[in-house]
Amino acid sequence: MHIYAFGSICRGDISVESDIDLLALVESRDPRLDPQKFSIYSYKRIGELWATGNAFAWHLALESKLVHSEDGRDFLKGLGMPSDYISVVEDCRRFREIFESALLSVQQDTPSLVFELSTVFLAIRNTATCFSLAMSPNPTFGRDSARKLGRRSIPISDNVYSTLMQARLLSTRGVGDDIAEINMHSLLNELESCRLWMNELCLEAEANGRIC
After folding, report:
1. Which sign, positive or negative, has the C-alpha torsion 187, 192, 198, 200?
2. What 8-state DSSP symbol labels residue 26?
3. b/e sequence 28-44, b meaning 16+ C-beta within 10 Å
4. What is the pLDDT of residues 139-162, one digit of tens each?
5. If DSSP codes are grouped into helix, strand and coil, which group holds residue 27?
6. What is the pLDDT of residues 159-175, one digit of tens each?
């Protein structure tokens, strides 16, 4: 078994709102591991992600740190760097579809506003991460990835971005303050800007010939 930490604790941007992301590599099912606390992968599956240049493989390669090793080896380090990440267009299109579905629900006055805004944030963050991984020499991961793309950073207010992040925390962890009363007209206008931003990232990726 090998256990790694990854995410905000390894980037150094941990806050009171952060959790600790843990990856466990095992040969087969292990009763000592709680799937609520660990991302559990077999060695074979991790090898497959490395071979295909999966975005999560790159995340681990660039930001994970070994916590425990039963054989004294750093398994991930021994794999070297993952293959080239070439699926940016496919991935960005997929997250754009997720965004569009959640946005439609918000526009239709969904009774599950927190969940849908959480999904919007997931799509925004992952789109930015995938784009940066393919198009930048300095990939950016984490909750602020969409605000760390330089001239390609997301064009929405800090207030709306913070609201989306808070929705994500409430939806996935059940922690944090309730979302304050929202001006839906302003929110929808800013989410339309998000839509245009995502379309521009997809077009730029396509223009650079990175179609999987």
Report:
1. negative
2. E
3. eeeeebeeeebbbbeee
4. 999 899 999 999 999 999 999 999
5. coil
6. 999 999 999 988 887 76
Q: Could you give the C-alpha distances from 107 to 56, 78, 85, 178, 192, in angstroms and in order? A: 31, 48, 34, 20, 11
Task: Give the Å distances, CA to CA, from 176 to 64, 82, 111, 145, 170.
Answer: 26, 36, 20, 21, 6
pTM comes to 0.87
| Run of H or E including 34 | none
Q: Which of 67, 60, 105 has its CA nearest to residue 81?
A: 60
d(CA 188, CA 197): 14
DSSP label at 208? Answer: T
Q: Which helix (DSSP H) or strand (DSSP E) does residue 128 occupy? A: helix 113-135
Question: How many CA atoms lie within 13 Å of 24's alpha carbon, on the beta-carbon side?
Answer: 16
Does residue 197 have a pLDDT over 50? yes
d(CA 52, CA 49): 5
Q: Which helix (H) or strand (E) holds 40?
A: strand 39-42
Q: Which domains does the chain have, with CATH numbers?
A: 2-78 (no CATH), 88-207 (1.20.120)
Report d(CA 134, CA 202) in Å as an integer: 11
Mention every residue, 6+ apart, whose C-beta is less than 8 A from residue 138. 132
Query: Using an 8 Å Cβ cutoff, are 56 and 49 in contact?
Result: yes
**Gap between the Cα atoms of 40 and 34, Å rounded:** 9
| Cα–Cα distance measured from residue 77 to residue 64, given in angstroms and rounded to the nearest whole number | 10
